[in-house]
Structure formats: C-alpha cells, structure tokens
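Amino Acid Chain and Its Fold in Token Form
===========================================
Purpose: to set a sequence beside its fold so the mapping can be learned.
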Amino acid sequence: MPSSDRMTGAIKLRLVLLLVVVGAAAISVAAAAAADVDSFSYPVFDATTTQDLVAGSNTSILTPASLLFNQDALFAEFNRTEGFLLLSRTVDVWRVGTGGAPAFEASFNTSFALSGGAPVAFVVLRDSYPTLYGTGGLRGFANYSASDADDGATSRNASGSLVSVEAGPVRSYGPDSPAVGLNVTVTPNDARVAVWIEYDAGVHRLSVYVAGAGEARPATALLDAPLGLAGERTTEKAMVGFFAGAVQDILVGVRDWNLTVDRFFDSSGGGDGWKKGTSSWVILLAVLGSVAAMA
C-alpha cells in the first residue's frame, strides 16, 4: 500500500475513534445531567408513606406525619385543622453567586391527581416552618392580588371547566415577610383531575396544566405567567408540599404526587455549583485533544 494511502487510512481510523469518543463522552455527560435532580413519588398518603413527611398547623408541628393516622382524638382534631403536609427535607431553589446575587436557580415540575371540591395548594416555602401562633393563622396573610405578580400587572388566576387555579406567594410568615415562595391553589369543580405544575428557571416562567383523571397532559397550559423565585422571596433551600383548609383534604384528595427538582452540587470544596458537569466537559476536551494529537 502506498504511503499516502496508509496515512489516509490512519486519519480515517482516528476520525472514527474521535467520533466514538465524542459519542461516549456526550452520553456520559447526558447521563450525569439526567441524574442531577431530586425526585419524590407518593402514590397515596397513608401511615407508611407519610413517615418521611411533616404536618404542620398554626400551633404545632407533627413529625412524622404518619401520626395523623392514629386513632387518638388529638390527631383527629389536627386532621380537621388548616395546615401543611411537607417533605421532611428541603430542596434546592437557588444558589448565591458573587456579590450576593443568585448564580443558579432550580427548575422543577410536579404532578398530582386531585379529587373532591376542596381547594388544595402546592407550596414552596422557606427553609424553615412559619412561626407558630402567627397572627391571622396560616392564611392570615394569604390574600393574593394581581399586583403581587413580578411585572405588577399580569393576572395569575385562571378557570376552566374542570378547575380554578390561583398562583401567588405564601402569606404564612407574617407581615415582616408578606410574600414568600409560591402558592398554586387548585380548586376542582367536584371532579377528579390531573394537575401538572412546571417552573422553568431559565425563562422564569410558571405553567399549570390540567386534564381529566387518566388523560394526558394537554399541550396548552391553563395558567402561564412570569415568576422569579430566587432572591429575597425564598431562601436557597425550601420546604415543599401542600396546604389545605383541613389537612385531611390533602390526605384524602391528593394522589399520585410526583416531584422532580434540579439539584445543585455541593460547592463547599471551593468549586462552583455545577462542579460535576464542568469536570465532564474538561475530561471530554482533554480526550479530544489527545485524539487530535495522534493525527
């Protein structure tokens, strides 16, 4: 074989190797990115699944929430009280950057089935529970108006044949923190419905989709509005779950709750919040450089 043919063959082989390496590295990076989330799933709320949840009212915090299924009169009264049912651990919302401004913000999506006519709210709180015995109770500061929207004008109320949806801040933290986190209240029209709530941190957009039970998520959102969660409105980590006028409305009415939230990597070692993703690309570039040098 002539020398030029051998050289051409070698270059082609190295190009094939380059494509294989790029493909493998890209798959590795994609897999890592896909795993960079926290996921939670609760088909039902019962004495078993609520062992890692927390229930809270204006006067007390119950942990684990599985105590709500005891036959004691005290817990029965708690079930009839307005309150929260929350994950026992916090999730990432944002991370601070240079100068104290938010550097990263988490997107999330959650879905659940809701039955009955009682309104139930999906909520994003702060990293700590509201002060007990707060003035006005947990809903004392929950009255929402369109002026609370980020642009000061966009309405966050929407109604359809199946439900009414209202989105705004949580008002449970008292007058010193009148607008906290996120409160998406869904009121079904005496029907069993499926609800999807999505927050896209990249474009600061909240979307709420609703369909009949067992139906696929519709292409068009019932409610779509601008929203920014990072900064003074929330802490970097937050408690997440549900609120209702009676805790039992959550236990009985909510089914098939799924939640997926972006997870930030620990930056305590001095790196940034996306340490793993950055490292993957550094490795990829190093490999590509090695292959190129072979040619």
Remarks:
- The first helix runs from residue 3 to 34.
- The CA atoms of residues 19 and 288 lie 9 Å apart.
- Helices lie at 3-34, 73-79, 247-253, 275-294.
- The radius of gyration is 24 Å.
